[in-house]
Structures are given as structure tokens and as C-alpha cells.
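request received
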Amino acid sequence: MTIYRSHVLVCGGTPCVLKGARTLKDLLLKEIERYQLSDEIRVVETGCLGPCDDGPVLIVYPEGAMYSKLKPTDILKIVEHHLLKGRIVEELVFRERKSSAGALQGSAVPLEQEKYLSLQKRVVLRNCGRINPDSIDEYIANNGYLALGQAVTTLTSDQVVKIVADSKLQGRGGAGFPTGLKWSFTAKTTSDQKYIICNADEGEPGTFKDRLIMEGDPHGIIEGMAIAGYAVGASQGIIYIRGEYGLSIERMKNAIKQATDYGLLGKKILGTEFNFEIDVRSGAGAYVCGEETALIESLEGNRGEPRVKPPFPGIAGLWGKPTIVNNVETLANIAPIILNGPEWFRSIGTENCPGTKVFTMLGDINNQGLVEVPMGITLREIVYEVGGGIPGGRGFKMAQTGGTSGGCLPSEFLDMPMDYDTLSKVGSALGSGAMLIIDDTHCIVDVLKSFMKFFCHESCGKCTPCREGTTRLYEIVLALSEGTATDTEIQLLKELSGAMQLSALCGLGQSAPNSLLTCLNFFADEFQAHLNGQCPSGICKNLTIESEAV
Amino acid sequence: MTVTSCNIQKPNLGEVIEKYKEFPGSLLDLLHEVQEIDGYLSRDVMQQIAEGLGISESKVYGVATFYSLFKTAPTGQFIIRICESAPCHIRGAQEVLEAIEETLGIKPGETTLDGKFTLEFTSCLGLCGVAPAIMINDQVYGNLTSDRVKEVLLNF
Ligand SMILES: Cc1cc2nc3c(=O)[nH]c(=O)nc-3n(C[C@H](O)[C@H](O)[C@H](O)COP(=O)(O)O)c2cc1C
Ligand code: SF4
Ligand code: FES
Ligand code: FES
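response:
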């Protein structure tokens, strides 16, 4: 085996590839070849390294120097100075963009000391950006499949369920339902066939964590699914990936093949009586198919319309058989929990919501991208420390947590801890972990128009409160932006929202009014201004800016 | 419709139906593959699928019209899908949309006269890390501005 002097990890996540990472990698290889360094330096393409907005990104180990915003000429410099002569190219080193005025200038600060990374705790993303996702050997070298081995050879199914229950892990797909409890229901059923479905239909606007987890560490998901299968007595797994995620589909298929070749999937896994297989299926463009029963309908070849619950999928799901549906991130947490124990997991995050959460930070924020932090971090820490603040020194107006289905929180909430319990108490949600930061140049009504149009477009039409309700909500918000809405209509917005929350069949219709209601509550002035024909931010075209009026 | 330069044999309708016939629940996979043939699912094709699988035509039509990636009418050679969800919206998707409309002379839902481009709205594509984003067929593009999107279109 060759020992390499340095490893260069080139980010191969979709955002970086879009910005030319592949071309840079080819150039890098060529340059390394030219300097005859191929035996000393190994180049590896990895999954997302985090700061996608600053891509393309690469890291050189052992120094751990992260270079961002790379151009071809930068590659030449890095090879010549860093790889050949061992000097870090300081001007290219990634810095959190908070630019606390030159504090970081001078020597290249080891990355771990920077806020951006120091607040992070990597459990789910433990391998993302550290290993080559196309290599099962690298996954195994990092304790991969050890948890599966332990589970099937030393633990009973009940013990596995108990460990997961004791960890207090909650589903990361949006609702935060306790995973151990969900598994225990299905484990108790008797059936000739049970299914484990990994929900990778990620469609919540602002969410792209599952994509980057699949691209960066596909084996972590496979291992989680297999352990789930062992725990509840299922032999068939299905991963349902949205149709647009080409690279994720490719990586998952490759990883499944490798695991099968190694005997980690298939019949008699690791010489035990446990059998487990995984199929990859893909969606065809419908947000509602992320809802577990709609997803199951879609897998059965039908229109993706949610079913009436109960029965819950855990009892009667795919083809009427007991079925576990878990999110990608939930499943990626399983192997570390088995390996390190439930106490370890509960030591991270908050008491009621332990563990980490992968957030996607977007909108008006300097470090757009993916981060994993302990549950319970405050909004302020996310925005101003991990996220590097708001560009141009503009003011914070609001954050929408949990994607378009979540609520909008103004600056009073900056110090609130981000976890499932706390957020749902204030009418918002942690949801999928999307954090959309909006600065004070934006108009609430304009942003709401985009939110409402989304639901109007994605409502499946099965039940009336949502089918009609989402359309009416959109029409009224549109009227507000055009200056034709009346007081009565604001009243109607509230009534309709309440009715939808109570009577819509699935989570789509029930949560569609969240953003609207929180905004009506926290930004009442701005609605009043629009009723008076003014748009304080000057965004709604038909209206006047306040100062110009009168 | 223009044929791409490679001469890989396109799948044949009968074969695709045969291939999926035995697999319950595979209608979506079948439709994906059939759509490769003509770029959309015609009434006639949907009839043949229904017959081949022994299910009603309305079932096939119902599924085909539910999912946005399935087309029941001819489209341009390249389908441009522009994301209009909030994260792209606040990062300037409107400007990108206007640039596309201006360059191609079409609105969302329309196809250029030469049959080259169809423009559509889509919900979030999971590319918000590089918002605003679009997809052209299978290809993704991010961090767009009105100038950059014009450049992208020139390459087609
Ligand atoms: C409209 C709608 C869309 C959803 N989309 C997703 C999704 O994209 N991914 C996901 O994991 N869960 C999604 N969910 C939640 C699922 O129904 C389900 O609760 C989840 O997959 C369970 O997994 P967990 O317990 O691991 O969170 C969605 C729910 C609704 C109502
Ligand atoms: S709430 Fe909306 S999306 Fe859910 S079933 Fe009813 S119409 Fe369909
Ligand atoms: S994709 Fe490269 S940093 Fe996220
Ligand atoms: S909001 Fe446009 S890609 Fe997600």
C-alpha cells in the first residue's frame, strides 16, 4: 500500500461541480503529474464540504487547509506552492466571511479554529468531504459497517430498537416523530413481508441536505437502512429519490452494488440469518410525494395522493404491509448511535431534542450552504457566527425556519434555541432544517406571494380545504401586492388559515398557512401599509413607497 | 424533432411494456422510459400502455398528468425549468426569468417557434446553495444573473 504525503480532497458536491470542480480536478491531476508528485499526493473527489456558495472548494491534508472560490490559475498556485514547496497559499484560504476586519489575516489559521467550523459537530456528515463516496473501502476504514456487524451478531432486534428509543432520536424529515417508537410499532407486527423506505424525495424549498448526504456518504444511509431492517424484521429496503437528483441516484446505486458485492447486503448478511436488499426508485416531480403515504402511493404506481391515516404505514404501508418510512438524515444517525451508545447521543444537543441537526442556510447570509450543529443552537449563532452574518451589513428582518412550510420569526426570536419543541410552540417548525434568512430590503408580502404560489402549485387536490384554500390564500396575497385587497380579505385570510390547519388531510395543507399567520402576527404594520396602497420596501410594483406617498 | 448525435437505439414501446409488465407498481418507471422515445406521452401511446398492462386508460392518464416530469403534449428539444421558490426568488430569480423571456421571446408554458426551447416554472430543485438556479433537461445551472443565463442559452 502506498503511503501518501498529502491528500487533496476536491469537493464533488453538485453546487461545486456546477462551478467547474471537475475541470479543476482534471487540471490538478495534470499538474501533479507534471511535477511528478503522483506517488506522493492523492486526489480524492468527496461529497459536500459545506460552504457551497464559496465553491469550488478543496482541502489539503494533513494541514487541513481549505481553499475556496477556486479558478484554474489558483490550482497552479496551490500545486506549485503548497503541494510542491509546502507553503500554504494564504490568499486563497477559505475564511468565514464575517470579516471581523483582518482578525484572521497573517498566518493561515488552522480551520478548526474558525467559527464556521468550530460550532459544528459532525455526526451525520462524519464522512462527507472526508472520504471518497464511491469507495466502500474508505467507508469501512472509517468504522463503516461496524455498527451493522455489531447489531446483527451481538444484539437482538429488540435491543436495537431499545438503543434507538433510548437515544431519543427524532425523525429529521420534518415532523420530529421519535424514531425508536416508530420502529417499535412495526417490530411488534407479524407479517410475511415488511419494508424499510428511505424518504429521499426532498422537495421542501430551501432544503438540499439529503442530496448532499447521499452524494457525500451513501454507505451511511445503507447501513442505517439495514440496521432498521434488522430491528423491525424487514428484508426489503427501498430508497425513493426525487427524479431530479441525478448524481444522488448514481451514487446510491453504486454504493448498493458495492455493499452487495461485499456481502453487506443480500442473503445471510455476515453469516447470520438476516437478509436485506435495497432498491432505488425515483419520483417524477411532485412535492407532495415526500409525504409518507403519498410516497407509498407513488411506489405502487399511482397518483401521489396522501392516504387517510390511520392506519399508519408502520402497520399497513406499502402493499398493505408494515412499512417504516424514515428520512435520509434520520437513517444516517443510526450507525453512530449503535456504535457510541444512546448516552453519547443524548449528550449532544438539548435534553428533549438530542443530537445534531443539519441545516441549510440560505437567502441573505454570507456563508450559504450546509452545516451540522448541535440541536438547540440559537438563531443568532446560526446567522451571525456559523452563517457569517448578512451581506452588506444590512439588517435582519426575519428567518423562515423549516422551509416554506415553516413560520417566519422576526429579530425578537434571535436568541431562541432551535429545536423541534421550542419552534413548534411559537407557530413555526424546525422541519427539514432549512433556514431562509431575509434582510430588511425585502417586502413581506412579496415573499409571501412566493410561498403561497408554491402551495397552490403543489397541492395535490385531493381534499377541498387545501385545494381551494391554497388558491384563495395566493389570490389574496397577490391582491395585497397589487393594492386591491381589503380589510375583509385580511379577516378571511385568518379564518381560512385556521380552517386549513384543522381540516386539511395532510401536512401540506395543514402547514401551508404557517408562514402567513406568523407574518400577520409579527408584521401587521406592513400588511396595513399594503392595504393603504403602500409598499414600505418599494418592491410591489403597483404601490408607492411610504415616504413618497402623501 | 432533432435527433441527438449519438445513435443509441431508442427503446421500443412494446419492449418497455414487456419489461415492466410483471412488476407491480412500476408504472412511473415505465412512463419515464417510454417518455424517452418521443419526449412526451401521446394519447395513442398511453392507450397502448393501458392495453399492455391491462389497466384503464384513465389510470395511465391520471398518473401521467399528476407528475410534473411527465409531458402529455410535445415540448421543445430543451426544457428550461426555472425555480420560483422563495430562496431563489429572494436571490433574483425574477431577473433571470426576465432575461430568459427576453432572449427567447417566450413566457413560462410556451415553446419557441423553432421547437428548440420550452420554458417552465418549477418548485425548488434542491440547488438553493447556488440560488437562483435552473435546469435545462438534465443539466443544472446555479448562481445565475441575467448576463450569465444569456451566456448559458447561447451555448445551446
Ligand atoms: C407535504 C409533505 C412533504 C414532505 N416531504 C418530505 C421529504 O421530502 N422528506 C422527508 O423525509 N419527509 C418528508 N415529509 C415527512 C414524511 O411524511 C415523514 O414524516 C418522514 O419521511 C418520516 O421520516 P422521519 O420520521 O425520519 O422524519 C413530508 C411531509 C409532508 C406533509
Ligand atoms: S392537504 Fe393538500 S396536498 Fe394534502 S391531501 Fe389535501 S389537497 Fe392533497
Ligand atoms: S458542494 Fe462543494 S462545498 Fe457544498
Ligand atoms: S429554491 Fe430554487 S433551488 Fe431551492
